[in-house]
TrEMBL record:
InterPro entries reported for this sequence: HET, HetReg/Transcr_Mod
Record's protein name: Heterokaryon incompatibility domain-containing protein
Domain annotation Heterokaryon incompatibility: ranges: 23-215
Pfam family, one: HET
Superkingdom per UniProt: Eukaryota
Amino acid sequence: MTSHQYQREPDASRYGEYLSPMYYALSYTWGRWELEPDRSPETKALDVANVSWPIPRIRPDRFTAAQFQRVLQNVLANYMVPKVELSGGHHNMIQHIYSAPQSEFVWLDVACIDQTPGSPLKAQEIGRQARIFRGAEKVFIWLHGIEPSVLWRAVSGLFRAGGEATWIYGREPGQLPRLRGPVLRGDEDFLAEAVTSLQDLLTDPWFSSLWTLQEAFLSPAAEIVDKDGQLLYDLRSGGPGGVEARTPIDLQSISRECVLLARVCSRSVAIKKQSTTISLPPCELEESLLALIEKSGLATLALRNPMALYTMSRKRTTRDPCDRIYGIMQVFDFQLGSSAPAVDPGKSFTLPELEIQLGEELFRGMPLLSQVVVHTEVVPFGHAWRVQASSTMPSLADHLTYYRTSSIWGAYEPRCNLSTSAQSGTTWGRFGGVSIPFSELVEICRIVNEAGFYQYRERISGQEVPYEASEPNGNYSQPKSCFQLALDMTELTIGSPYLSSLELSNISPHQQNQQSAALELASVCEGKHLELRVILLGQYVDERRDRWDWGMTEDKDFSRGEKWNVGILLSRPFPSNGVSHLNQENVKWRRLGVMIWDLANNALTGRTSKEKEYLLGEGRSWEKTEGLFG
């Protein structure tokens, strides 16, 4: 095997003497089993020619160099194509037809990235990860930590359980999903099978590696290969004439099953926990399955929300804390820290420095998306403007975030300028836009909710159906709210018995729950003599909203689409003279959370012009505001 060095050309990529060759990429994990130079000298590394660095040696109880070589050969052999070879003279030409691999090139990190510690070339190549994986003809995920028979049993068990979830949710051909699927008993066979299957699948270290997280996000269609490098096939659907179809199992098909299972279990758990009048079965098994799905990150990956990667990275294994940034930055097309093109090769960066760089780049590239996170721990004043190790994605983000195909990736109406400013050794977020008192906006939303003009429409598997307020027994649900809150953990929420009892990143979307949380937050701020305002970040519009862009539906056209205003909640002490000046650029505000409110046509139908102005971010109550926040 030979490594061909990358050389950038104006309109192409050259690898040695080959110009833009078709290649595959292999996603796998090995760092935890790398041998130190002085250990097990008899253990050989993968034999690669034309490299200037030592190829890492791996503990043979994980995989040997010979096994690695065989896996690479099998990966190439998974896709063969006919080729023609001509021989003989002009008058007796002989044509030979034979099978050969579709591609002879595989991008392999140990053979293509300089493994010398601190190498500038290594940092630069890491900065090209997005282009490498997006440019690959195919990406393969090598699960070398699980026996092939166990892997097949786990995946097929997950598919069977997902099929049960599909049936429960009513997604039959030509039918809209039922919103009133049965409450699960909690002892269904498919739940137990799903739990066992996911437990087995997650024993493979690929699902706990930090670096594979970025690769998974960049390559949702990556195909699974087992310990021997053989493809797994989905045999559930028959081909023409009853011939068994052989469809390679890819990452998005596994994620799709996790999404379906999570939706069924989440709905069942919510109904059980909301019930106050009758006794319902326990939900331990559903909660166990939900915890496994969250741990795997598979359902989160399906949402295609790049901001979720940093929060997911906390659950992944890495040797260097800074890799929590380096390992995900390429999904944003960022080159940060030592990977930046013009950086001093000898300079090193700390994790807080990299977090600031990430926050600054997000402000420039995707300011709205940068704030659709909440902090699950109290963050020092001045730091809450940027994503932290304790940050997580709020449930309301499901309405907003799409990767690449989404209008949130820059094609939205911005209403606020975000930047940074260094003040006394702390880097603050800086904002300039319009704001409204929180209580005024909540009151308008309450009027819209209670007047009955707002009809929440829930989208399941890409299909849109009206929300049914009267479920069995009438106590399990209530109408959804036209606004949703997600709150940071702060001294204010800790000091409120009601707010501290809530899951602040996942407050129930029902009207009563949202209204109660909003009123309590306003009351707490008033009691602390704090001014609480909503800063309008911008408007998200997606006329062709396709929630499951990983193939959950073939319907790509929705008449309603999505239209939301997005704001952040900021507070500060009321001025001692009682006069609130909102355009003082160095006044410091505390970030308390994020709020979205629905601007879809059915939310505004029949409203007065004043109410529409409030919701749209217009009118006299919206005032120009600027300052620092964090």
